[in-house]
Amino acid sequence: MFSGMLLIFSPLIIGYLIPIKQVRYLNAVNTLTMRLVMVILVLMGLSLAGLDNLGQHISTILYFAVTFFICIGATNLLALPVLDKLFPTETHGHQHKLTLSTMMSESGKLIAAVAVGLVVGLLLNHDLSWVDTASEGILLLLLLLIGIQLRNSGMTLKQIILNKSGLMIAALVVATSLPGGLLAAWWLDIPYHHGLAMASGFGWYSLAGILMGDGLGPVYGGASFILELARELMAIMIIPILIRRYPLTAIGYGGATAMDFTLPIIQSTGGIRCVPIAIVSGFILSLLVPVLMLFFLSLGTN
After folding, report:
1. Where are the domains of the chain?
2. What is the mean pLDDT of residues 235-260?
3. What is the pLDDT of residues 161-174, one digit of tens each?
4. Do 282 and 260 contact (CB within 8 A), yes or no?
5. From residue 248, how far is each of 98, 159, 168, 217, 252 by CA, in Å?
6. Taking phi first (over 0 means left), then psi (-120 to 50 degrees means alpha), and beta for anything else, what does residue 271 get?
């Protein structure tokens, strides 16, 4: 079990130890990371195409995704408003409207990558046994690059420690997501460590889907991808609604995306005071996604 964990964690740790100061190299890392994500998502689509009884598996994927979405979302939203009651946060939104197409274009590209892989796999009808091996190799490189990105994201340990609101949000999101995953696992009658792994995506749908697919196969990978994508799309809709009265709740529901994809929405509707909180909470949750998910997945290996 631990040797397998070490093999997966090693690229992430090595990447985190690599400082990069030149902007052009960081841009190259970001570009390569995105391209590798697209490649692995295409491979995920190919894996789905190789499943027997594909229609039945798609129903299972949707059922899993909806169940986890309801259970995790409910446990998050029941607890996060407590932070707003205990630690009121002032907001000053700018009131300018963000277009839906701008907010959803990146999500659409990733969905399209999975769809392309699925369609190509169904049309070619070739042997797809090589897909899992290829995905594992690319995943190791991707984790190395993600480690580099996290190290060079601009967040120092001092900045993280001093932002108590961001720390509390991240801690509460983790503390409430995991019970939600256990509840969903109980309802679906699947191993509890699978439920804990599914609950550890925190909105990072591309990486979560890839890790779950690599660890448990395309059904779990597809379910995780849809689950976290649905969380992000829901965050886009509810952040502008909640952030005036419940800013910490709105930021917390954004999960790992609060430091990147939903950050412009948080800044636009909540004001500049919300930005450091969102970046810190999003950074911590992003860092924990591969750590927690790989740990829980390793519990089922021999």
Report:
1. 2-298
2. 87
3. 678 888 999 999 99
4. yes
5. 21, 18, 9, 35, 6
6. left
Query: What does the DSSP assignment read for 3-62?
Result: HHHHHHHHHHHHHHT-----HHHHHHHHHHHHHHHHHHHHHHHHHHHTSSSHHHHHHHHH
First-to-final CA distance of the chain: 5
Look at residue 156 in the predicted model and tell me its pLDDT.
63
Q: CA-based Rg of the chain, rounded to a whole angstrom? A: 19
Q: What is the pLDDT of residues 49-69, one digit of tens each?
A: 776 667 778 889 999 999 999
Q: Does position 1 have pLDDT exceeding 50, yes or no?
A: no
Residues ≥6 apart with Cβ < 8 Å to 70: 184
- Of 48, 29, 219, 224, give the one whose Cα is nearest residue 121: 48
* 152 vs 147: CA distance, rounded Å: 9
DSSP secondary-structure letter at 95? -
